Amino acid sequence: MVAQELVPAPINRGAHKGLHYAQILGYFEMEEKGRVVKVDNGVAQVEMERTSACGRCGICLQSSGDKPILYAEDSIGVRSGDEVLVSVESKQVLKAAFLIYLFPLVGLIGGYFLGRTVLGTERTGIIFAGLGFFTTLFLLYQYDKRLKAQKSKEAKIVQIVKR
Length: 163
Known about the structure:
With 163 residues, this protein is an alpha+beta fold. The protein is built from three helices and five strands; from the N terminus they run αββββααβ. α2 packs antiparallel against α3.
């Protein structure tokens, strides 16, 4: 097989999404529907519909309501109120899932072993585990605030479903 043949085929946006070279090579794109709330400087704030595939991966910023908010690059000229299809690369979803689920666990376990090693008692291990866990949560909170300020462009609006 020639390397040029491994160019990703276009994503099939029909009812049945076909497997294409990008998926075989591990570059999946997750596509979900949402409603545009606001558009500012080429970045759309999209209120996403939570689906079973979503699984609270963390790529969307949690709003005060039930529906998560995602900032997506607008290259097709959407307007407020449009129903759109948003695409996110799998590496961004995996990064968000790691940060949300595994990073606090690493802080918890690392804190325990650090406390246990430093003073050698079970009590200090437990205290340091709590400190490690809450420190990672604080760091995630700060990271989330920074992402909100940047209005991350890791997601892209690929199609207007309904105006």
